[in-house]
Amino acid sequence: MTKPSIALSRKALIFSSFFLIVPFSHAFDSAQDYGIEVKGQASILVEPDSFALSIAIIEKGRFTDKIRAIVDNKSNQVVDIAKGLGIKSNFINSARVSLRVIEEDPKINVQGLSVDKNLANNHQSELYIKNNTTEQINNVRPQYFELSRNITVNFSDIKDYDQFLNQVIKIGVNQISPLTMSVGDTDKYYQQALAQAVTDAKTKAQQIAKQSEQTLGKLVFVKEISSNHYRAQYNAPMMSMSSSYRHNSQVGNQAISASVLVKYSIE
Questions:
Q1: Is the four-CA dihedral 24, 27, 29, 35 of positive or negative sign?
Q2: Is the pLDDT of residue 189 over 50?
Q3: In 3D, which of 156, 235, 224, 181 has the Cα closest to residue 46?
Q4: Would you say 209 and 217 are in contact if contact means Cβ atoms under 8 Å apart?
Q5: Distances (CA, A) of 235 to 53, 118, 124, 179, 250
Q6: Terminal CA-to-CA distance of the chain, rounded, Å?
Q7: CA distance 221 to 263
Q8: What is the DSSP string of 152-170?
Q9: Residue 221 has pLDDT above 70, yes or no
Q10: Nearest to 255 by CA among 200, 192, 203
Q11: Quick one: which H or E segment has residue 185?
Q12: By the 8 A CB rule, do 253 and 47 touch?
């Protein structure tokens, strides 16, 4: 009778050991999820240090050689103004030229002329004069050409841009595109914003721990959830042709932002 009781006690031991392992494993998984998780954000305000302006010189006419001479003359004046401000040649791009053919219908197309005339004895007659050249006019349409040159100038000082703009207006340029403002070394400022984002996340975690009457532990997880994706900004387009035009630009700061996701343990 003693042997069966020994076998039963062994089964009970194995069975109880199985239940001892499960709570330990479950407690370990819970510890992995236990802590404070927060998102940190920060922005660095930087003044733009690079400016680019594009202008277009456009002329229309019947003869390409004549309109090209006008466009080249104005383009040379624009380039000379930029160089006069100390802008180097590698910061001036004037190679983009386009030619377009413009076909226009005749503005006056007379097919015939009808004239009423009073005769004696109160009789009336109608005289109709037919235009035999109508078909010939319809088949011959005047052809015009449009020649344009786009010039882009890059500046490192906003004051140079103002002086350049005030002078090229007097030449008679046709289109002035919006000014592009950008920051050169964005990575340097992004790294600063990233460090401040981590500090911001720690401050938030400390506040949460204090409010919940807990002690903040060590940093167990950190993830960068932003990227140094910087987009240049544009100001409003300017298309004034007045010779008395004067403009002084005001450059505002641009924000370079970063964000992180962190997790702290609780002691």
A1: negative
A2: yes
A3: 181
A4: no
A5: 11, 69, 70, 5, 10
A6: 54
A7: 5
A8: EEEESSHHHHHHHHHHHGG
A9: yes
A10: 192
A11: none
A12: yes
Place of tokens 């002086």: 163
Rounded Cα–Cα distance for residues 188 and 194 (Å): 10
Structure tokens, 236? 């409003």
Q: What is the DSSP annotation of 199-251?
A: HHHHHHHHHHHHHTT--EEEEEEEEE--------EE--------TT------P
Residue 38 to residues 8, 260, 266, Cα–Cα distance (Å): 53, 9, 13
The DSSP line for 32-51 is HH-SEEEEEEEEEEE---EE
Statement: the pTM of the whole predicted model exceeds 0.70: no
Q: How far is CA 9 from CA 6, 15, 245, in A?
A: 5, 10, 103
- Asked whether residue 107 carries a pLDDT value surpassing 80, the answer given is no
> Please, which contacts does 72-79 make with residues 24 or more away whose CB atoms are closer than 8 Å?
72/149, 74/171, 74/172, 74/173, 75/149, 75/151, 77/168, 77/171, 78/151, 78/168, 78/171, 78/173, 79/151
Q: 3-state class of 197 per DSSP?
A: helix
Per-residue buried b or exposed e for 66-92, using 16+ beta carbons within 10 Å of the residue's own CB:
ebbeebbebbebbbebbeeeebeeeeb
pLDDT in tens, 25-84: 333 344 456 799 999 999 999 999 889 999 999 999 989 899 999 999 999 999 999 999
- By the 10 Å C-beta count (0-12 exposed, 13-18 middle, 19+ buried), 134 is classed as middle
| Residue 133, helix vs strand vs coil | coil
Strands 124-130, 50-61: pairing kind: unpaired
Coil, strand or helix: which one is 6?
helix
Q: Identify the pLDDT of residue 228.
A: 87
| 191, two tokens | 């790294």
Closest CA to 50 of 188, 246, 234, 176: 234
